[in-house]
Amino acid sequence: MKMYGLIGYPLSHSFSKGFFKEKFEKENITGCQYENYPIPGITEFITLLEAHPQLQGLNVTIPYKEVVIPFLDELSDAAARIGAVNCIHFNGGKKTGYNTDVIGFTKSLQPLLRPHHTRALVLGTGGAAKAIMYALEQLGITYTVVSRRPENGAIAYEALDQATMEAHTLMVNTTPLGMYPKVDTFPEIPYQYLSSRHLLYDLVYNPAETAFLQKGAAQGATIKNGHEMLILQAEASWEIWNKA
């Protein structure tokens, strides 16, 4: 039996396990199993690997996308530049880290981009934000990071005025604000300055339309949640785990 899985903590409502269970059934993939491994500390990563030597690959979610890196043997070029890993391939005893978030985000964003989407605001600074920044760089879109603790070039939410909002027509929420069950939360940006020129992308997918997206849609903005990105990054992980 080939084993795959997801590490993170907590893993109360994981997308990945359901996705791969359905994929295995739909595509008649036999001899494979995908499980959740909620480990309360990253130091338990090695214990997990020792207990499950048949593991072929893992996905990585909050809060381990960055702190898992010292436990790996190699990183893909993208993962090294991003500084965050969400996919690990075990091959011949070697643990290699990849970032498929960047693949999922890029493929799902590109069809929505218009010529005026040249500047973005990235809301949040976590591991997911790093993948988004890398993807935007690859797409030639300049960005400004917005954070509750403005440092390293980031600006504060309070600094978002009308001119800044109008100049940055792509907004990407990389924070968990609005995620179930806290569906009433949202990034504190001045939504009144949004227009039909804006594209709002939320990495959150549960609920399908967060308060952030609802407020954008009310101003005429184009909106997109993170569900397709999740599917695309999962498929990219599967390709990595099964490459020669």
UniProtKB/TrEMBL annotation:
Annotated GO MF terms: NADP binding; shikimate 3-dehydrogenase (NADP+) activity
GO cellular component: cytosol
One Pfam family, short name: Shikimate_dh_N
Domain annotation Shikimate dehydrogenase substrate binding N-terminal: ranges: 6-88
Coiled coil residues, start to end: none
Keyword annotations from UniProtKB, A to Z: Amino-acid biosynthesis, Aromatic amino acid biosynthesis, Oxidoreductase
Top-level lineage group: Bacteria
Pathway: Metabolic intermediate biosynthesis; chorismate biosynthesis; chorismate from D-erythrose 4-phosphate and phosphoenolpyruvate: step 4/7
UniProt record, GO biological process: aromatic amino acid family biosynthetic process; chorismate biosynthetic process; shikimate metabolic process
PANTHER family referenced in this protein's UniProt entry, alphabetically: BIFUNCTIONAL 3-DEHYDROQUINATE DEHYDRATASE_SHIKIMATE DEHYDROGENASE, CHLOROPLASTIC, SHIKIMATE DEHYDROGENASE
Name the UniProt record assigns to this protein: Shikimate dehydrogenase
Organism for this UniProt entry: Chitinophaga polysaccharea
